[in-house]
Protein backbone atom coordinates (compact mmCIF):
# COMPACT_ATOMS: atom_id res chain seq x y z
CA UNK A 1 0.00 0.00 0.00
CA UNK A 2 1.50 3.36 -0.94
CA UNK A 3 1.88 5.85 1.90
CA UNK A 4 0.95 8.81 -0.27
CA UNK A 5 -2.78 8.81 -1.04
CA UNK A 6 -3.43 11.39 -3.76
CA UNK A 7 -2.62 11.80 -7.46
CA UNK A 8 -4.02 14.35 -9.91
CA UNK A 9 -2.13 13.54 -13.11
CA UNK A 10 -3.76 10.45 -14.60
CA UNK A 11 -4.35 9.34 -18.21
CA UNK A 12 -6.86 6.77 -19.46
CA UNK A 13 -8.00 5.11 -22.68
CA UNK A 14 -9.74 8.37 -23.61
CA UNK A 15 -6.26 9.59 -24.60
CA UNK A 16 -3.01 7.62 -24.68
CA UNK A 17 -3.48 5.58 -21.49
CA UNK A 18 -4.00 1.81 -21.31
CA UNK A 19 -6.63 1.49 -18.55
CA UNK A 20 -10.16 2.81 -18.61
CA UNK A 21 -11.52 5.28 -16.07
CA UNK A 22 -13.38 2.67 -14.03
CA UNK A 23 -10.40 0.33 -13.83
CA UNK A 24 -8.27 3.22 -12.59
CA UNK A 25 -10.83 4.29 -9.97
CA UNK A 26 -11.10 0.68 -8.75
CA UNK A 27 -7.33 0.47 -8.45
CA UNK A 28 -7.19 3.78 -6.56
CA UNK A 29 -9.79 2.45 -4.12
CA UNK A 30 -7.79 -0.77 -3.70
CA UNK A 31 -4.67 1.32 -2.99
CA UNK A 32 -6.65 3.14 -0.28
CA UNK A 33 -6.17 6.47 -2.05
CA UNK A 34 -8.27 9.40 -0.86
CA UNK A 35 -8.20 11.60 -3.98
CA UNK A 36 -7.82 10.74 -7.65
CA UNK A 37 -7.62 13.46 -10.28
CA UNK A 38 -8.05 12.47 -13.91
CA UNK A 39 -6.23 14.63 -16.45
CA UNK A 40 -6.82 13.46 -20.02
CA UNK A 41 -4.77 15.13 -22.73
CA UNK A 42 -6.80 17.99 -24.18
CA UNK A 43 -7.51 17.98 -27.89
CA UNK A 44 -4.66 19.41 -29.96
CA UNK A 45 -5.38 19.68 -33.68
CA UNK A 46 -1.62 19.90 -34.36
CA UNK A 47 -1.20 16.29 -33.19
CA UNK A 48 -4.14 13.94 -32.73
CA UNK A 49 -2.01 10.89 -31.97
CA UNK A 50 -1.99 11.09 -28.16
CA UNK A 51 -4.91 13.29 -27.10
CA UNK A 52 -8.66 12.95 -26.57
CA UNK A 53 -10.86 13.49 -29.61
CA UNK A 54 -13.27 16.40 -29.53
CA UNK A 55 -16.24 14.02 -29.14
CA UNK A 56 -14.31 11.97 -26.60
CA UNK A 57 -13.83 15.03 -24.42
CA UNK A 58 -17.54 15.33 -23.63
CA UNK A 59 -17.82 11.59 -22.93
CA UNK A 60 -14.76 11.79 -20.69
CA UNK A 61 -16.16 14.78 -18.82
CA UNK A 62 -19.48 13.01 -18.27
CA UNK A 63 -18.00 9.67 -17.24
CA UNK A 64 -15.61 11.20 -14.70
CA UNK A 65 -18.62 13.03 -13.22
CA UNK A 66 -20.56 9.75 -12.90
CA UNK A 67 -17.61 8.03 -11.22
CA UNK A 68 -17.16 10.97 -8.85
CA UNK A 69 -20.76 10.60 -7.72
CA UNK A 70 -20.51 6.86 -7.44
CA UNK A 71 -17.39 6.90 -5.28
CA UNK A 72 -18.43 9.91 -3.22
CA UNK A 73 -16.29 10.99 -0.27
CA UNK A 74 -14.48 7.66 0.24
CA UNK A 75 -12.47 8.36 -2.93
CA UNK A 76 -12.80 11.93 -4.06
CA UNK A 77 -12.54 11.96 -7.85
CA UNK A 78 -11.58 15.21 -9.56
CA UNK A 79 -12.38 16.17 -13.11
CA UNK A 80 -9.22 17.61 -14.60
CA UNK A 81 -7.42 17.97 -17.87
CA UNK A 82 -3.85 18.29 -19.12
CA UNK A 83 -3.87 21.36 -21.32
CA UNK A 84 -1.09 21.80 -23.79
CA UNK A 85 0.20 25.26 -24.68
CA UNK A 86 -1.30 24.60 -28.15
CA UNK A 87 -4.62 23.15 -26.98
CA UNK A 88 -7.75 24.17 -28.78
CA UNK A 89 -9.72 27.02 -27.16
CA UNK A 90 -12.95 24.96 -27.08
CA UNK A 91 -11.43 22.72 -24.39
CA UNK A 92 -11.74 25.60 -21.96
CA UNK A 93 -15.53 25.60 -22.12
CA UNK A 94 -15.72 22.77 -19.55
CA UNK A 95 -15.61 23.40 -15.84
CA UNK A 96 -12.43 21.63 -14.72
CA UNK A 97 -11.46 21.00 -11.07
CA UNK A 98 -7.77 21.26 -11.91
CA UNK A 99 -5.67 21.85 -14.98
CA UNK A 100 -2.19 20.48 -15.65
CA UNK A 101 -0.48 23.18 -17.74
CA UNK A 102 2.07 21.55 -20.02
CA UNK A 103 4.44 22.37 -22.88
CA UNK A 104 4.98 19.35 -25.15
CA UNK A 105 5.79 21.26 -28.37
CA UNK A 106 7.82 24.21 -29.60
CA UNK A 107 6.73 26.39 -32.49
CA UNK A 108 9.63 27.61 -34.59
CA UNK A 109 9.58 29.26 -38.01
CA UNK A 110 5.88 28.46 -38.32
CA UNK A 111 6.42 24.76 -37.69
CA UNK A 112 5.76 22.73 -34.55
CA UNK A 113 7.82 19.86 -33.16
CA UNK A 114 7.44 17.77 -29.97
CA UNK A 115 10.13 17.93 -27.29
CA UNK A 116 9.23 14.64 -25.61
CA UNK A 117 8.50 12.23 -28.48
CA UNK A 118 12.02 10.93 -29.07
CA UNK A 119 15.62 12.00 -28.77
CA UNK A 120 16.01 11.82 -32.56
CA UNK A 121 13.08 14.16 -33.19
CA UNK A 122 14.40 16.61 -30.60
CA UNK A 123 17.94 16.63 -31.95
CA UNK A 124 16.81 16.76 -35.60
CA UNK A 125 14.74 19.84 -34.74
CA UNK A 126 17.76 21.29 -32.96
CA UNK A 127 19.83 20.94 -36.16
CA UNK A 128 17.04 22.09 -38.46
CA UNK A 129 15.78 25.14 -36.57
CA UNK A 130 18.65 26.14 -34.25
CA UNK A 131 21.81 25.22 -36.23
CA UNK A 132 22.57 22.67 -33.51
CA UNK A 133 22.48 25.20 -30.65
CA UNK A 134 20.54 23.24 -28.03
CA UNK A 135 20.61 26.15 -25.58
CA UNK A 136 18.64 28.33 -28.02
CA UNK A 137 16.05 25.56 -28.30
CA UNK A 138 15.98 25.38 -24.50
CA UNK A 139 15.43 29.16 -24.30
CA UNK A 140 12.33 28.77 -26.49
CA UNK A 141 11.08 25.86 -24.39
CA UNK A 142 11.36 27.75 -21.09
CA UNK A 143 9.88 30.93 -22.56
CA UNK A 144 6.83 28.86 -23.35
CA UNK A 145 6.79 27.28 -19.87
CA UNK A 146 6.98 30.74 -18.33
CA UNK A 147 3.90 31.74 -20.34
CA UNK A 148 1.84 28.58 -20.07
CA UNK A 149 -0.13 29.49 -16.94
CA UNK A 150 -1.00 32.85 -18.48
CA UNK A 151 -2.25 31.18 -21.65
CA UNK A 152 -4.34 28.66 -19.70
CA UNK A 153 -5.75 31.32 -17.39
CA UNK A 154 -6.67 33.50 -20.37
CA UNK A 155 -8.44 30.51 -21.95
CA UNK A 156 -10.45 29.95 -18.77
CA UNK A 157 -11.35 33.62 -18.45
CA UNK A 158 -12.49 33.85 -22.08
CA UNK A 159 -14.62 30.72 -21.69
CA UNK A 160 -15.85 31.86 -18.27
CA UNK A 161 -14.96 28.46 -16.87
CA UNK A 162 -12.76 26.74 -14.31
CA UNK A 163 -12.56 29.84 -12.08
CA UNK A 164 -11.49 27.81 -9.05
CA UNK A 165 -9.33 25.28 -10.86
CA UNK A 166 -5.84 24.81 -9.46
CA UNK A 167 -3.25 25.30 -12.19
CA UNK A 168 -0.47 22.73 -11.92
CA UNK A 169 2.67 23.29 -13.97
CA UNK A 170 3.25 19.92 -15.64
CA UNK A 171 6.73 18.35 -15.79
CA UNK A 172 8.48 21.74 -15.58
CA UNK A 173 11.77 20.50 -17.09
CA UNK A 174 10.37 18.03 -19.63
CA UNK A 175 13.15 19.21 -21.96
CA UNK A 176 15.52 17.01 -19.90
CA UNK A 177 13.57 13.83 -20.73
CA UNK A 178 16.38 12.38 -22.86
CA UNK A 179 19.20 14.05 -20.95
CA UNK A 180 19.93 11.37 -18.37
CA UNK A 181 23.58 11.77 -17.32
CA UNK A 182 23.86 15.05 -19.24
CA UNK A 183 24.00 13.27 -22.63
CA UNK A 184 22.57 16.16 -24.66
CA UNK A 185 23.44 19.26 -22.65
CA UNK A 186 24.97 20.41 -19.40
CA UNK A 187 22.30 21.22 -16.80
CA UNK A 188 24.82 23.31 -14.83
CA UNK A 189 25.59 25.53 -17.86
CA UNK A 190 24.69 29.17 -17.06
CA UNK A 191 22.53 29.39 -20.21
CA UNK A 192 20.47 26.43 -19.07
CA UNK A 193 20.15 27.73 -15.52
CA UNK A 194 19.15 31.20 -16.66
CA UNK A 195 16.49 29.75 -19.00
CA UNK A 196 14.67 27.81 -16.28
CA UNK A 197 15.18 30.51 -13.67
CA UNK A 198 13.45 32.96 -16.01
CA UNK A 199 10.45 30.64 -16.39
CA UNK A 200 10.26 30.12 -12.63
CA UNK A 201 10.46 33.88 -12.00
CA UNK A 202 7.54 34.45 -14.32
CA UNK A 203 5.35 31.69 -12.92
CA UNK A 204 6.05 32.58 -9.29
CA UNK A 205 5.52 36.27 -10.00
CA UNK A 206 2.12 35.48 -11.51
CA UNK A 207 1.24 33.30 -8.54
CA UNK A 208 1.67 36.22 -6.19
CA UNK A 209 0.04 38.86 -8.40
CA UNK A 210 -3.50 40.02 -7.84
CA UNK A 211 -4.47 39.04 -11.37
CA UNK A 212 -3.90 35.39 -10.51
CA UNK A 213 -7.28 34.06 -9.54
CA UNK A 214 -6.11 30.45 -9.70
CA UNK A 215 -3.64 28.78 -7.38
CA UNK A 216 -0.40 27.82 -9.16
CA UNK A 217 1.30 24.62 -8.03
CA UNK A 218 4.22 22.60 -9.33
CA UNK A 219 4.41 18.82 -9.51
CA UNK A 220 7.08 16.24 -8.82
CA UNK A 221 6.35 13.96 -11.75
CA UNK A 222 7.46 10.31 -11.80
CA UNK A 223 5.96 9.49 -15.22
CA UNK A 224 9.26 9.21 -17.09
CA UNK A 225 10.55 6.87 -14.38
CA UNK A 226 7.67 4.41 -14.65
CA UNK A 227 8.10 4.39 -18.41
CA UNK A 228 11.85 3.81 -18.23
CA UNK A 229 13.16 7.12 -19.61
CA UNK A 230 14.61 8.48 -16.40
CA UNK A 231 15.86 7.36 -13.02
CA UNK A 232 14.75 10.54 -11.23
CA UNK A 233 11.51 12.53 -11.32
CA UNK A 234 10.93 15.95 -12.91
CA UNK A 235 12.02 18.51 -11.89
CA UNK A 236 15.70 18.35 -10.94
CA UNK A 237 16.86 18.86 -7.35
CA UNK A 238 18.22 22.32 -8.24
CA UNK A 239 14.84 23.42 -9.59
CA UNK A 240 12.97 21.92 -6.63
CA UNK A 241 15.22 23.80 -4.23
CA UNK A 242 14.39 27.05 -6.06
CA UNK A 243 10.66 26.24 -5.96
CA UNK A 244 11.05 25.78 -2.21
CA UNK A 245 13.06 28.98 -1.91
CA UNK A 246 10.24 30.93 -3.58
CA UNK A 247 7.69 29.51 -1.17
CA UNK A 248 5.75 27.56 -3.80
CA UNK A 249 4.19 24.15 -3.14
CA UNK A 250 4.23 20.91 -5.07
CA UNK A 251 2.03 17.87 -5.43
CA UNK A 252 3.24 14.38 -6.30
CA UNK A 253 2.19 13.24 -9.79
CA UNK A 254 2.58 9.84 -11.37
CA UNK A 255 1.45 11.01 -14.84
CA UNK A 256 0.11 7.47 -14.89
CA UNK A 257 -0.87 5.87 -18.22
CA UNK A 258 -1.69 2.49 -16.70
CA UNK A 259 -3.57 1.63 -13.51
CA UNK A 260 -0.68 -0.14 -11.76
CA UNK A 261 1.51 3.00 -11.87
CA UNK A 262 -0.95 5.31 -10.07
CA UNK A 263 1.51 6.09 -7.27
CA UNK A 264 4.72 4.96 -8.94
CA UNK A 265 7.88 6.22 -7.26
CA UNK A 266 6.00 8.31 -4.69
CA UNK A 267 8.08 7.18 -1.69
CA UNK A 268 11.22 8.31 -3.50
CA UNK A 269 9.59 11.55 -4.70
CA UNK A 270 8.45 12.34 -1.18
CA UNK A 271 11.97 11.85 0.15
CA UNK A 272 13.31 14.07 -2.61
CA UNK A 273 10.86 16.82 -1.66
CA UNK A 274 11.99 16.64 1.96
CA UNK A 275 15.63 16.76 0.90
CA UNK A 276 14.95 19.91 -1.16
CA UNK A 277 12.84 21.49 1.57
CA UNK A 278 9.78 21.87 -0.63
CA UNK A 279 6.26 21.83 0.77
CA UNK A 280 4.18 18.89 -0.53
CA UNK A 281 0.41 19.22 -0.57
CA UNK A 282 -1.50 16.03 0.16
CA UNK A 283 -4.68 17.53 -1.21
CA UNK A 284 -5.47 20.35 -3.61
CA UNK A 285 -8.97 20.33 -2.10
ZN1 LIG B 1 2.48 15.87 -20.31
ZN1 LIG C 1 0.45 13.73 -18.60
Under the CATH scheme, which class? Alpha Beta
**Widest sheet: strand order?**
1-2-3-4-7-8-9-10
Helix content: 25-40%
How many domain units?
A: 1
Q: Which fold name is given in CATH as the topology?
A: TIM Barrel
Beta percentage is 15-25%
CATH architecture classification: Alpha-Beta Barrel
Q: How many distinct helices?
A: 8
pLDDT averaged over residues: 94
Low-confidence blocks of residues? none
Order of H and E elements = EHEHEEEEHHEHEHHEHE
Summarize the structure.
This protein has 285 residues and is of the alpha/beta class.
Write structural notes for this entry:
The protein is of the alpha/beta class and 285 residues long. It has one domain: TIM Barrel (Alpha-Beta Barrel). 38% of the residues lie in helices and 17% in strands. The protein contains eight helices and ten strands. The strands form two sheets. The chain has an eight-stranded parallel beta sheet. It has a two-stranded antiparallel sheet with strand order 5-6. Helix 4 packs parallel to helix 5. The radius of gyration is 18 Å and the shape is globular. The two termini are 22 Å apart. The site of one zinc ion has 5 residues, from loops.
Amino acid sequence: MPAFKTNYHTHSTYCDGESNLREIAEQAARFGMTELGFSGHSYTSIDESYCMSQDGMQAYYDEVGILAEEYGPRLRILRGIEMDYFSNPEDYSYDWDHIICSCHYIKKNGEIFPVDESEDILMDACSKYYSGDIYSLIDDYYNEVGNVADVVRAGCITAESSADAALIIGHFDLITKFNEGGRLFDESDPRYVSAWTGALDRLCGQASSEAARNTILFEINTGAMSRGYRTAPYPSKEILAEIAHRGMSVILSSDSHEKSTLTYGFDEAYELAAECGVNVLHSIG
